[in-house]
């Protein structure tokens, strides 16, 4: 397994298409990063341990973040992420999952997987999802940084990664690691003495069912506090040009306006 630090570069769009991932650094203003760090320092509790090996017995998770912490919208609709999302998925892409994760010392490596494989459609295929791991603490190969297999989104069915094909990235708080849904990935083992904390966000094509039911998690009255971009990502919008997701023949974004009038 190799380790590398990837600097910001102008070829992020091309690298995402070619290698299946890219790393964007220094994306957050210092005050936003400080507030996010403070919020999650006080909100991880001892009853949030993973329920199985995949979630991680030494990993804590907080779900439905937009229902609890409005500041997370800064990540969900970050302009750099929106650019990649629109280019690689769809103008009508939706938010599938948004959770905070903290991997503690002693956690073992998560099994490598590709999110798009859940649909059971033969590889290779166009991307159905895009994932972003936002770092709120330093990420290193020693503390459980995300493992990736570059280029694996182009593989045929049946091929599995060898150990020397797996990459572990090092990056700083405020950075975002982005990968396509066909890329094999997983949380790394934490062999250090420190935990690592991040926010995992997944976006789907608009015709896929969300991992988290965002409309129930963030009902219209709560969604009203967010921008229209976030509202539509939550599911309060129709997919163009199909008009998938309408309510009584209307764009559901209108439900939010009615909820606050």
Can you describe this structure?
The structure is a single chain. By secondary structure, the chain is an alpha+beta fold. It folds into 2 domains: 2-212, q2cbj1_9rhob like domain (Jelly Rolls, Sandwich), CATH 2.60.120.620; 216-261, no CATH class. The chain is 23% helix and 20% strand. The protein has helices at residues 12-19, 30-41, 65-68, 73-76, 79-88, 214-217, 220-223, 228-234, 253-259; strands at residues 2-5, 21-24, 59-62, 94-103, 129-135, 147-148, 167-170, 176-180, 185-186, 196-204. The strands form 2 sheets. Strands 2-8-5-10-4-3 form a 6-stranded antiparallel β-sheet. Residues 1-8 have low confidence and may be disordered. This is Phytanoyl-CoA dioxygenase family protein. InterPro entries: Fungal_Metabolite_Diox, Phytyl_CoA_dOase-like. Pfam families: PhyH. Keywords: Dioxygenase, Oxidoreductase. One of its GO terms (molecular function) is 2-oxoglutarate-dependent dioxygenase activity.
Question: How is the secondary structure organized here?
Answer:
Blueprint: E1 2-5, H1 12-19, E2 21-24, H2 30-41, E3 59-62, H3 65-68, H4 73-76, H5 79-88, E4 94-103, E5 129-135, E6 147-148, E7 167-170, E8 176-180, E9 185-186, E10 196-204, H6 214-217, H7 220-223, H8 228-234, H9 253-259
Parallel strand pairs: 1-7
Antiparallel strand pairs: 2-8, 3-4, 4-10, 5-8, 5-10, 6-7, 6-9
Task: Note the total helix count.
Answer: 9
In the predicted model, the low-confidence regions spanning at least 5 consecutive residues are 1-8
Structural class: alpha+beta
How many domains is the backbone divided into?
2
Broad shape: globular
Secondary-structure element series: EHEHEHHHEEEEEEEHHHH
Q: Outline the biggest β-sheet.
A: 6 strands, antiparallel
Q: How much beta, percentage-wise? A: 15-25%
* Assigned CATH superfamily of the largest domain: q2cbj1_9rhob like domain
Top-tier CATH class of the largest domain: Mainly Beta
Organism: Mycobacterium spongiae
Protein name: Phytanoyl-CoA dioxygenase family protein
Keywords: Dioxygenase, Oxidoreductase
GO molecular function, one term: 2-oxoglutarate-dependent dioxygenase activity
